[in-house]
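Good morning N.,

You mentioned wanting to compare the apo and holo forms, so I went ahead and generated the holo version with flavin-adenine dinucleotide. This is what I fed in:
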Amino acid sequence: MNNINIPENVDVAIIGGGMAGLSAAASLSQMGVKNVAVFESEKLAHCDGSSFGESRMYREMYSDPVLCKLAKESNKLWAEQESVSKYSLRKEHGLLFYGESWDEETIEGSIPGAQKVMDEQNIPYEFLTSEKISERFPIKPKDHFVGLFEPSAGAILSNKAIENWIQIIRNNGNQIYEGCRIKRIDDKNDSLEIIGNQSVSFDQLIVAS
Ligand SMILES: Cc1cc2nc3c(=O)[nH]c(=O)nc-3n(C[C@H](O)[C@H](O)[C@H](O)COP(=O)(O)OP(=O)(O)OC[C@H]3O[C@@H](n4cnc5c(N)ncnc54)[C@H](O)[C@@H]3O)c2cc1C
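and this is what came out, ligand included:
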């Protein structure tokens, strides 16, 4: 950390070099914003961060209509990214959501709730009985279970997405500082204190840590 040459001022400081911080920095870079700096306390996409690994599922199959709309918007943005990236960023293979048919909402939603929202928002899906699920997939659900299959859902190739964003950030002349832990946000002086007694002032701040 002591050898890192930190600028005195940046236009946009971003704390955290996971998917949220890097995608924000890449979007700003693509919009032509200069003097953007990402500060990551560890290595980028390190194994203790939430963004570590090869894939993350994406779907529009949510019981909450707002989440469903957000997922639709997000899929448009992924498609835009893919149109200018040399990498494949997603793999569309469909997703099966199966289990009890009751309408109690869990952290992942509920099957009747997701079905209602998908009907309202015209999202294609198949309704599957337990028997149909075991014909199509290598699982044997309980007899009373039901499922929804969303064919256009799939997996985000998260490590490729991260590689893609890093290139966009660097190719546009913006900076990523690894091993650079932010100790304190000084909101009176709009500056960040970095471990090792360095500091950087900013015009705008994004916290993605
Ligand atoms: C096992 C697992 C499976 C998941 N599956 C899915 C899925 O299928 N679909 C889905 O949509 N989501 C999924 N998620 C959630 C998704 O991965 C996270 O929401 C996303 O990766 C969060 O990204 P992030 O950038 O906010 O956080 P992180 O990737 O954790 O990045 C935050 C970064 O901030 C850094 N940091 C922290 N403090 C400081 C500091 N003081 N100074 C500098 N840097 C700092 C950290 O080191 C870290 O690198 C899953 C998460 C996990 C863990």
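Residues 89 and 161 are 6 Å apart (CA to CA).

Happy to go through it together on a call whenever suits you.

Best,
F.
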